[in-house]
């Protein structure tokens, strides 16, 4: 898969002579609704002998348009998004740097420079996709300004339980800890990447050593609580139980931590890049009267996670 980084107006891509079937959108999460769009681009590319392409944007438009000063956290940071797109079978990804210059483009200029000049033969987007200055461009305008060589497809709203599947909905479910529904909306487990760092090593004292995972920058962290998870270490997957929270029994930290206890695991993995897949929520984080009470609860959490994951093989 080829990745083209675009900065307007200084760095525009050279179009492919054969043309593209292009799915366009921000695509945070690459959920089931997004997958429909991308599958249509792939289907069209195969039918019409085109390259299957995706156009996405970085950073999130709200950083520029909304003037947000706080950090933006993504369901799928760009590196994850690219990995998932490659797995789905995309040939090319155009990553457009979202700047104030780009945001000021008229809708007509966007169509000309980022669709027609790119030799796109078929453009696919969701019913609510907007583009150009002040978001005034929509897919009806795309159809109006399309040349005779450009096919335009609008994908209708994709729903689950009569509610639109969207990145906003998934974020809200992550905030609530509804991990099973998140997995259903994504079509795969929620994923978080990070590095194993040194913690207080208190888990060893109660026979439940944990890997303290520092998430990669910009990733959305699920709700505080205890979960059944799998963690990838050096290309191997291990079942475990994960606590997201502030460790009120032993520390009452001001910073949220992600601690994973892996079953039947005894390696020194400090500094390793790891990946966590999130499954069943087990319970909320709580303060226990003693370390012994905490130890007893973790044993129960472990048993519940083992039972859940045993029924869901890799």
From TrEMBL:
One of its GO terms (molecular function) is riboflavin kinase activity. GO terms for biological process: FAD biosynthetic process; FMN biosynthetic process; riboflavin biosynthetic process. It comes from the Bacteria. It catalyses: riboflavin + ATP = FMN + ADP + H(+); FMN + ATP + H(+) = FAD + diphosphate. Residues 185-310 form the Riboflavin kinase domain. CDD domains: FAD_synthetase_N. Its EC number is 2.7.1.26, 2.7.7.2. The keyword Nucleotide-binding applies. It holds the Pfam family Flavokinase. InterPro entries: FAD_synthase, Riboflavin_kinase, Riboflavin_kinase_bac, Riboflavin_kinase_bac/euk, Riboflavin_kinase_dom_sf, Rossmann-like_a/b/a_fold. Pathway: Cofactor biosynthesis; FAD biosynthesis; FAD from FMN: step 1/1; Cofactor biosynthesis; FMN biosynthesis; FMN from riboflavin (ATP route): step 1/1. It is an enzyme of class 2 (transferase). Belongs to the ribF family. NCBIfam families: PRK05627.1-3, PRK05627.1-5, ribF. This is Riboflavin biosynthesis protein.
């Amino acid at each position: 898969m080829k990745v083209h980084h675009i900065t307007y107006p200084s760095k525009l891509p050279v179009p492919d002579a054969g043309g593209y079937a292009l799915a366009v959108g921000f695509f945070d999460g690459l959920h089931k609704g997004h997958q429909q769009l991308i599958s249509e681009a792939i289907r069209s590319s195969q039918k019409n002998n085109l390259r299957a392409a995706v156009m996405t944007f970085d950073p999130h438009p709200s950083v520029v348009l909304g003037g947000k000063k706080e950090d933006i956290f993504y369901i799928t940071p760009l590196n994850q998004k690219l990995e998932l797109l490659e797995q789905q079978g995309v040939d090319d990804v155009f990553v457009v740097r979202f700047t104030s210059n780009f945001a000021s483009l008229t809708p007509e200029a966007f169509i000309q420079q980022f669709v027609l000049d790119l030799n796109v033969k078929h453009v696919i987007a969701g019913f609510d996709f907007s583009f150009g200055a002040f978001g005034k461009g929509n897919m009806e305008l795309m159809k109006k300004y399309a040349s005779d060589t450009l096919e335009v497809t609008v994908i209708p709203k994709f729903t689950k339980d009569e509610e639109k599947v969207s990145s906003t909905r998934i974020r809200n479910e992550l905030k609530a800890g509804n991990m099973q529904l998140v997995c259903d909306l994504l079509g795969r487990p929620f994923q978080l990447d990070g590095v194993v760092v040194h913690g207080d090593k208190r888990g060893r004292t109660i026979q439940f050593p944990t890997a303290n995972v520092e998430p990669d920058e910009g990733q959305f962290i699920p709700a505080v609580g205890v979960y059944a998870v799998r963690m990838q270490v050096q290309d191997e997957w291990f079942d475990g139980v994960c606590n997201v929270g502030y460790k009120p029994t032993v520390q009452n930290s001001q910073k949220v931590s992600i601690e994973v206890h892996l079953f039947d695991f005894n390696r020194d993995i400090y500094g390793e890049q790891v990946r966590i897949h999130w499954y069943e929520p087990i319970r909320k984080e709580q303060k226990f009267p003693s370390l012994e009470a905490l130890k007893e609860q973790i044993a129960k959490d472990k048993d519940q996670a083992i039972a859940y994951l045993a029924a869901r093989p890799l």
